[in-house]
Amino acid sequence: EIVLTQSPGTLSLSPGEGATLSCRASQSVDTSFLMWYQQKPGQAPRLLIYGASNRAAGVPDRFSGSGSGTDFTLTISRLESGDCAVYYCQQDVGSSLIFGGGTKVEIK
Amino acid sequence: QVQLQESGPGLVKPSQTLSLTCTVSGDSISSGSFYWTWLRQPAGKGLEWIGRIYSSGSIKSNPSLRGRVTISLDTSKSQFSLKLTSMTAADTAVYFCARGRPYTGSYYFDSWGQGALVTVSS
């Protein structure tokens, strides 16, 4: 059973700083199947990145994704107050879709 | 722009069956090939994929839910539905419907409903 582990659990940064969010799979996964979502309080998730590195329509270029195999990264540059959210990675493992536990980004 | 809206009871008794419907508007549920999907999120916790129905009618559900899931598609009403049997307190969550857009053998969720809170309690 593949598990996605996201770290850190919480990231507290100042506006203008950069954030690096990690998503690690317990075994090698298909890069094309790795997605990132942003969820703000009380809202549905929003797609940010698909296929590990492709930005979804309307997503600012401050958001970028990278990685392969077991290690994937979501990078947010020049943090803004509106980036406060929980970020989830998602992978298709064939029998089902799985999500990581999320990283909460706080802006000081 | 496509919009999705969940509807159904907010309160379900233990052992009963949950029935939820997702109404799709702004674009025909029959236009294109998509994975119409149900997910859920217990309060303060992460996301769980429940299952999906493809435009062709093929269905896949989360093995962890052990056969409790039924998903159906009604193109005449532009709706798809979820039935989850044998509800327990552990099924209390916000339930989301979402549209999955195919991508290189899998899919990603490009549109979501706002979510519907379902509480299991007697």
Descriptive labels:
heterodimer; A: 108 residues; mainly beta; four-stranded antiparallel β-sheet; 52% strand; B: 122 residues; seven-stranded mixed β-sheet; 0% helix; globular
Layout of strands and helices, then pairs:
The complex is a heterodimer of chains A (108) and B (122).
Chain A: E1 4-7, E2 10-13, E3 19-25, E4 34-39, E5 46-50, E6 54-55, E7 63-68, E8 71-76, E9 85-92, E10 97-99, E11 103-107
Parallel strand pairs in A: 2-11
Antiparallel strand pairs in A: 1-3, 3-8, 4-5, 4-9, 5-6, 7-8, 9-10, 9-11
Chain B: E1 3-7, E2 11-12, E3 18-25, E4 35-41, E5 48-54, E6 59-61, E7 69-74, E8 79-84, E9 93-103, E10 106-112, E11 116-120
Parallel strand pairs in B: 2-11
Antiparallel strand pairs in B: 1-3, 3-8, 4-5, 4-9, 5-6, 7-8, 9-10, 9-11
Explain what this protein looks like in three dimensions.
The complex is a heterodimer of chains A (108) and B (122). Chain A has strands at 4-7, 10-13, 19-25, 34-39, 46-50, 54-55, 63-68, 71-76, 85-92, 97-99, 103-107. By secondary structure, chain A is mostly beta strands. With 122 residues, chain B is mainly beta. Chain B is 0% helix and 55% strand. Chain B contains no helices and eleven strands. Chain B has strands spanning 3-7, 11-12, 18-25, 35-41, 48-54, 59-61, 69-74, 79-84, 93-103, 106-112, 116-120. Chain B is globular. The termini of chain B are far apart. In chain B, 39% of the residues are buried. The chains are: A mainly beta (108), B mainly beta (122). The interface between A and B is medium-sized, with 24 and 22 residues.
The structure class of chain B reads mainly beta
Hey, roughly how much beta strand do the residues of chain B contain? over 45%
Q: Roughly what percent helix of chain A?
A: under 10%
- If helices are DSSP runs of H or I spanning 4 or more residues, what is the number of helices of chain B? 0
Task: Tell me how many strands of chain B there are.
Answer: 11
Strand content of chain A: over 45%
The averaged pLDDT of chain A comes out at 97
The SSE order of chain B reads: EEEEEEEEEEE
